[in-house]
Amino acid sequence: MRRPEVDLFPRDPHMSQFGLRAPLGPLARESRTPGPPAGRPAVDAEAREGRAAKGSGEAATLPVIILCGGFGTRLREETEFKPKPMVEIGNRPILWHIMKTYRHFGCRDFVLCLGYRGDAIRDYFLNYHRRNSDFTVDMGTGAVSTLSNGSAEDWRVTLVETGADALTGLRISRALKYVRGDTFFATYGDGVADVDIGALLAHHRRAGRLATVTAVHPSSRFGELSVDGDCVRSFREKPQVAEGWINGGFFVFEREVFARMSEADNVSLEQGVLEDLAHERRLGVYRHGGFWQCMDTYREMQLLNEMWASGRAPWQVWQTCPPAA
Prior knowledge:
Layout lengths: L44 H12 L7 E5 L7 H4 L8 E2 L2 E2 H11 L4 E6 L3 H9 L1 H4 L2 E4 L6 E5 L7 E6 L6 H8 L7 E6 L2 E3 L3 H11 L3 E6 L7 E5 L2 E6 L9 E2 L3 E4 L1 H4 L9 H11 L3 E6 L3 E3 L3 H12 L7 H4 L5
Parallel strand pairs: 1-4, 1-8, 4-7, 10-15
Antiparallel strand pairs: 2-3, 5-6, 8-14, 9-16, 10-13, 10-14, 11-12
Protein backbone atom coordinates (compact mmCIF):
# COMPACT_ATOMS: atom_id res chain seq x y z
CA MET A 1 0.00 0.00 0.00
CA ARG A 2 1.13 3.58 -0.64
CA ARG A 3 2.53 5.65 2.18
CA PRO A 4 1.42 9.26 2.62
CA GLU A 5 3.73 12.15 1.82
CA VAL A 6 3.48 13.19 5.48
CA ASP A 7 3.81 10.38 7.99
CA LEU A 8 0.74 10.86 10.19
CA PHE A 9 1.33 7.62 12.06
CA PRO A 10 5.07 7.24 12.72
CA ARG A 11 6.28 4.03 14.24
CA ASP A 12 7.35 4.32 17.87
CA PRO A 13 8.91 1.41 19.79
CA HIS A 14 7.27 2.67 22.97
CA MET A 15 3.70 2.55 21.63
CA SER A 16 1.17 -0.04 22.68
CA GLN A 17 0.51 -2.78 20.14
CA PHE A 18 -3.19 -2.13 20.64
CA GLY A 19 -3.10 1.20 18.87
CA LEU A 20 -1.06 4.15 17.84
CA ARG A 21 -0.60 6.94 20.31
CA ALA A 22 1.09 9.22 17.78
CA PRO A 23 0.35 12.86 16.90
CA LEU A 24 -2.18 13.39 14.13
CA GLY A 25 0.11 15.75 12.23
CA PRO A 26 -1.57 17.94 9.59
CA LEU A 27 -5.03 16.93 10.78
CA ALA A 28 -4.29 18.55 14.11
CA ARG A 29 -3.24 21.81 12.50
CA GLU A 30 -6.72 22.49 11.13
CA SER A 31 -7.61 23.75 14.63
CA ARG A 32 -5.94 24.00 18.01
CA THR A 33 -8.96 24.14 20.26
CA PRO A 34 -7.81 23.44 23.82
CA GLY A 35 -9.70 21.13 26.13
CA PRO A 36 -12.17 22.48 28.70
CA PRO A 37 -11.02 23.84 32.06
CA ALA A 38 -10.58 21.25 34.79
CA GLY A 39 -13.91 20.06 36.13
CA ARG A 40 -15.94 21.65 33.34
CA PRO A 41 -17.22 19.45 30.47
CA ALA A 42 -16.95 20.68 26.89
CA VAL A 43 -20.38 21.63 25.55
CA ASP A 44 -20.63 22.82 21.99
CA ALA A 45 -22.86 22.55 18.96
CA GLU A 46 -21.58 19.11 18.03
CA ALA A 47 -22.19 17.81 21.55
CA ARG A 48 -25.73 19.17 21.47
CA GLU A 49 -26.22 17.55 18.08
CA GLY A 50 -24.86 14.32 19.54
CA ARG A 51 -27.48 14.39 22.28
CA ALA A 52 -30.12 14.74 19.60
CA ALA A 53 -28.56 11.79 17.75
CA LYS A 54 -28.92 9.69 20.92
CA GLY A 55 -32.62 10.30 20.87
CA SER A 56 -32.87 9.63 17.14
CA GLY A 57 -31.56 6.11 17.66
CA GLU A 58 -29.15 5.94 14.70
CA ALA A 59 -26.19 5.08 16.92
CA ALA A 60 -28.25 2.28 18.44
CA THR A 61 -28.48 0.59 15.05
CA LEU A 62 -24.72 0.41 14.53
CA PRO A 63 -22.53 -2.46 15.74
CA VAL A 64 -19.34 -1.87 17.70
CA ILE A 65 -16.14 -3.75 16.89
CA ILE A 66 -13.65 -3.87 19.77
CA LEU A 67 -10.05 -4.96 19.27
CA CYS A 68 -9.25 -7.49 22.02
CA GLY A 69 -6.45 -9.62 20.60
CA GLY A 70 -3.14 -7.91 21.38
CA PHE A 71 -0.47 -9.13 23.78
CA GLY A 72 -0.31 -6.15 26.16
CA THR A 73 3.43 -6.55 26.65
CA ARG A 74 3.88 -3.26 28.54
CA LEU A 75 1.39 -4.43 31.19
CA ARG A 76 2.97 -7.84 31.69
CA GLU A 77 2.22 -7.79 35.43
CA GLU A 78 -1.45 -8.27 34.51
CA THR A 79 -1.44 -9.69 30.99
CA GLU A 80 0.78 -12.75 31.42
CA PHE A 81 -2.31 -14.86 32.04
CA LYS A 82 -5.14 -12.76 30.56
CA PRO A 83 -5.64 -10.34 27.66
CA LYS A 84 -5.44 -6.64 28.38
CA PRO A 85 -9.20 -5.99 27.88
CA MET A 86 -9.77 -8.28 30.89
CA VAL A 87 -7.56 -6.21 33.22
CA GLU A 88 -9.91 -4.83 35.86
CA ILE A 89 -10.97 -1.37 36.90
CA GLY A 90 -13.01 -1.59 40.08
CA ASN A 91 -13.48 -5.37 39.84
CA ARG A 92 -14.77 -5.12 36.25
CA PRO A 93 -12.71 -5.63 33.07
CA ILE A 94 -11.86 -2.44 31.19
CA LEU A 95 -13.74 -4.07 28.31
CA TRP A 96 -16.94 -3.90 30.40
CA HIS A 97 -16.41 -0.17 30.97
CA ILE A 98 -15.98 0.45 27.23
CA MET A 99 -19.13 -1.51 26.40
CA LYS A 100 -21.12 0.32 29.09
CA THR A 101 -20.12 3.62 27.48
CA TYR A 102 -21.37 2.56 24.05
CA ARG A 103 -24.55 1.08 25.55
CA HIS A 104 -25.31 4.45 27.12
CA PHE A 105 -25.61 5.83 23.60
CA GLY A 106 -27.92 3.02 22.49
CA CYS A 107 -25.43 0.50 21.06
CA ARG A 108 -26.00 -3.10 22.11
CA ASP A 109 -24.44 -5.16 19.30
CA PHE A 110 -20.77 -5.85 19.99
CA VAL A 111 -18.24 -7.81 17.94
CA LEU A 112 -15.08 -8.69 19.87
CA CYS A 113 -11.92 -9.51 17.91
CA LEU A 114 -10.14 -12.18 19.93
CA GLY A 115 -6.55 -13.34 19.77
CA TYR A 116 -4.12 -13.63 22.68
CA ARG A 117 -5.77 -15.65 25.50
CA GLY A 118 -9.18 -15.22 23.93
CA ASP A 119 -10.63 -18.00 26.10
CA ALA A 120 -10.57 -15.66 29.08
CA ILE A 121 -13.00 -13.35 27.27
CA ARG A 122 -15.14 -16.26 26.07
CA ASP A 123 -15.41 -17.63 29.61
CA TYR A 124 -16.31 -14.21 30.99
CA PHE A 125 -19.32 -13.77 28.73
CA LEU A 126 -20.43 -17.40 28.79
CA ASN A 127 -20.57 -17.20 32.59
CA TYR A 128 -21.56 -13.55 32.88
CA HIS A 129 -24.98 -14.12 34.44
CA ARG A 130 -23.73 -16.62 36.99
CA ARG A 131 -20.86 -14.33 37.93
CA ASN A 132 -23.38 -11.61 38.72
CA SER A 133 -26.20 -13.69 40.24
CA ASP A 134 -27.04 -15.48 43.48
CA PHE A 135 -27.75 -19.19 43.01
CA THR A 136 -28.01 -22.49 44.84
CA VAL A 137 -26.26 -25.67 43.73
CA ASP A 138 -27.72 -29.04 44.75
CA MET A 139 -24.56 -31.12 45.08
CA GLY A 140 -26.58 -34.35 45.01
CA THR A 141 -28.36 -33.76 41.72
CA GLY A 142 -26.23 -31.03 40.16
CA ALA A 143 -29.31 -28.82 39.78
CA VAL A 144 -28.70 -25.06 39.85
CA SER A 145 -31.42 -22.69 41.04
CA THR A 146 -30.96 -19.02 40.24
CA LEU A 147 -32.06 -16.80 43.11
CA SER A 148 -31.41 -13.40 41.51
CA ASN A 149 -30.23 -12.24 38.10
CA GLY A 150 -27.90 -9.57 39.44
CA SER A 151 -26.91 -6.76 37.09
CA ALA A 152 -27.96 -8.31 33.79
CA GLU A 153 -26.98 -6.50 30.58
CA ASP A 154 -28.97 -6.60 27.35
CA TRP A 155 -25.91 -6.69 25.10
CA ARG A 156 -25.58 -9.00 22.08
CA VAL A 157 -21.95 -10.08 22.01
CA THR A 158 -20.29 -11.87 19.09
CA LEU A 159 -16.87 -13.32 19.88
CA VAL A 160 -14.70 -13.80 16.80
CA GLU A 161 -11.39 -15.66 16.75
CA THR A 162 -9.23 -13.42 14.56
CA GLY A 163 -5.89 -15.16 15.12
CA ALA A 164 -3.05 -14.86 17.59
CA ASP A 165 -0.72 -13.13 15.14
CA ALA A 166 -3.16 -11.00 13.14
CA LEU A 167 -2.59 -7.26 13.16
CA THR A 168 -5.41 -4.85 13.94
CA GLY A 169 -6.40 -4.09 10.35
CA LEU A 170 -6.77 -7.76 9.50
CA ARG A 171 -8.66 -8.42 12.74
CA ILE A 172 -11.36 -5.95 11.78
CA SER A 173 -11.49 -7.30 8.23
CA ARG A 174 -12.02 -10.85 9.54
CA ALA A 175 -14.76 -9.73 11.91
CA LEU A 176 -16.79 -7.94 9.23
CA LYS A 177 -18.52 -11.15 8.13
CA TYR A 178 -20.57 -10.83 11.33
CA VAL A 179 -21.34 -7.12 10.87
CA ARG A 180 -24.51 -5.96 9.16
CA GLY A 181 -24.83 -2.65 7.36
CA ASP A 182 -22.34 -0.29 5.80
CA THR A 183 -21.34 1.78 8.86
CA PHE A 184 -19.94 0.62 12.17
CA PHE A 185 -18.08 1.83 15.24
CA ALA A 186 -14.70 0.44 16.28
CA THR A 187 -12.29 1.07 19.11
CA TYR A 188 -9.37 -0.37 21.06
CA GLY A 189 -9.97 -2.60 24.06
CA ASP A 190 -7.64 -0.67 26.36
CA GLY A 191 -8.92 2.90 26.58
CA VAL A 192 -11.83 4.71 28.25
CA ALA A 193 -13.24 8.17 27.56
CA ASP A 194 -16.32 10.34 27.92
CA VAL A 195 -16.67 10.66 24.14
CA ASP A 196 -20.19 11.61 23.03
CA ILE A 197 -20.82 8.75 20.60
CA GLY A 198 -23.88 10.50 19.17
CA ALA A 199 -21.87 13.65 18.38
CA LEU A 200 -19.10 11.50 16.88
CA LEU A 201 -21.57 9.83 14.52
CA ALA A 202 -23.19 13.15 13.60
CA HIS A 203 -19.76 14.59 12.77
CA HIS A 204 -18.92 11.55 10.61
CA ARG A 205 -22.18 11.89 8.68
CA ARG A 206 -21.69 15.59 8.12
CA ALA A 207 -18.08 15.22 6.94
CA GLY A 208 -18.97 12.46 4.47
CA ARG A 209 -15.61 10.67 4.66
CA LEU A 210 -14.94 6.93 4.72
CA ALA A 211 -13.66 6.94 8.29
CA THR A 212 -13.46 9.19 11.33
CA VAL A 213 -10.88 8.95 14.12
CA THR A 214 -11.39 10.56 17.52
CA ALA A 215 -8.49 12.87 18.34
CA VAL A 216 -7.72 13.37 22.02
CA HIS A 217 -5.25 15.24 24.16
CA PRO A 218 -2.69 12.83 25.65
CA SER A 219 -1.88 12.55 29.32
CA SER A 220 1.41 14.13 30.29
CA ARG A 221 4.27 11.84 31.31
CA PHE A 222 5.15 14.29 34.05
CA GLY A 223 3.49 16.29 36.81
CA GLU A 224 2.49 19.83 35.85
CA LEU A 225 3.61 22.84 37.94
CA SER A 226 1.98 26.26 37.97
CA VAL A 227 4.65 28.64 39.26
CA ASP A 228 4.69 32.26 40.39
CA GLY A 229 8.26 33.46 40.70
CA ASP A 230 10.04 30.98 42.94
CA CYS A 231 6.76 29.64 44.42
CA VAL A 232 4.71 26.69 43.17
CA ARG A 233 1.06 27.78 43.07
CA SER A 234 -0.40 24.39 42.08
CA PHE A 235 0.70 20.87 41.20
CA ARG A 236 -1.19 18.33 39.09
CA GLU A 237 0.02 14.75 38.74
CA LYS A 238 0.22 13.80 35.04
CA PRO A 239 -2.73 15.85 33.74
CA GLN A 240 -4.07 15.79 30.19
CA VAL A 241 -2.19 18.33 28.13
CA ALA A 242 -4.07 21.07 26.27
CA GLU A 243 -1.95 21.02 23.10
CA GLY A 244 -1.37 18.27 20.55
CA TRP A 245 -3.74 15.59 19.32
CA ILE A 246 -3.27 11.82 19.22
CA ASN A 247 -5.26 8.86 17.93
CA GLY A 248 -7.67 7.94 20.73
CA GLY A 249 -9.60 5.20 18.93
CA PHE A 250 -13.41 5.55 18.98
CA PHE A 251 -13.67 5.29 15.20
CA VAL A 252 -16.53 5.33 12.74
CA PHE A 253 -15.89 3.29 9.57
CA GLU A 254 -17.68 2.66 6.31
CA ARG A 255 -17.40 -0.98 5.21
CA GLU A 256 -15.83 0.17 1.93
CA VAL A 257 -12.59 0.91 3.83
CA PHE A 258 -11.89 -2.81 4.25
CA ALA A 259 -13.34 -4.01 0.93
CA ARG A 260 -9.92 -3.86 -0.73
CA MET A 261 -8.24 -6.02 1.92
CA SER A 262 -7.62 -9.74 1.55
CA GLU A 263 -6.41 -12.47 3.91
CA ALA A 264 -2.90 -11.79 2.61
CA ASP A 265 -3.03 -8.22 3.93
CA ASN A 266 -1.90 -8.69 7.53
CA VAL A 267 -1.57 -4.99 8.24
CA SER A 268 -2.11 -2.80 11.26
CA LEU A 269 -5.05 -0.46 11.35
CA GLU A 270 -2.72 2.49 11.76
CA GLN A 271 0.01 1.97 9.15
CA GLY A 272 -2.00 -0.23 6.80
CA VAL A 273 -5.40 1.49 6.74
CA LEU A 274 -5.45 4.95 8.34
CA GLU A 275 -2.31 6.13 6.56
CA ASP A 276 -3.81 5.34 3.16
CA LEU A 277 -7.08 7.05 4.05
CA ALA A 278 -5.21 10.15 5.23
CA HIS A 279 -3.19 10.21 1.98
CA GLU A 280 -6.44 10.09 0.01
CA ARG A 281 -8.02 12.74 2.27
CA ARG A 282 -10.80 10.32 3.20
CA LEU A 283 -10.01 10.22 6.92
CA GLY A 284 -11.95 12.67 9.07
CA VAL A 285 -11.12 13.74 12.61
CA TYR A 286 -13.46 14.34 15.55
CA ARG A 287 -11.74 16.41 18.23
CA HIS A 288 -12.63 15.34 21.75
CA GLY A 289 -11.49 17.85 24.35
CA GLY A 290 -12.80 15.87 27.31
CA PHE A 291 -11.47 12.93 29.26
CA TRP A 292 -9.52 10.09 27.65
CA GLN A 293 -7.08 7.60 29.14
CA CYS A 294 -5.49 4.44 27.80
CA MET A 295 -4.18 1.61 29.97
CA ASP A 296 -0.76 0.76 28.59
CA THR A 297 1.16 0.50 31.85
CA TYR A 298 0.75 -0.65 35.44
CA ARG A 299 0.75 2.97 36.62
CA GLU A 300 -2.10 3.83 34.24
CA MET A 301 -4.06 0.85 35.54
CA GLN A 302 -3.56 2.14 39.08
CA LEU A 303 -4.64 5.64 38.02
CA LEU A 304 -7.88 4.37 36.48
CA ASN A 305 -8.64 2.29 39.56
CA GLU A 306 -8.04 5.31 41.79
CA MET A 307 -10.46 7.37 39.69
CA TRP A 308 -13.08 4.64 39.91
CA ALA A 309 -12.65 4.22 43.67
CA SER A 310 -13.14 7.97 44.14
CA GLY A 311 -16.68 7.70 42.79
CA ARG A 312 -15.92 10.35 40.16
CA ALA A 313 -14.68 8.33 37.18
CA PRO A 314 -15.01 10.77 34.23
CA TRP A 315 -15.83 8.02 31.72
CA GLN A 316 -18.80 6.70 33.75
CA VAL A 317 -21.29 8.57 31.56
CA TRP A 318 -23.97 5.94 32.16
CA GLN A 319 -24.27 7.29 35.72
CA THR A 320 -23.77 11.00 35.09
CA CYS A 321 -25.81 11.59 31.91
CA PRO A 322 -29.38 10.69 30.90
CA PRO A 323 -29.48 7.40 28.94
CA ALA A 324 -30.17 7.22 25.24
CA ALA A 325 -33.82 6.99 24.27
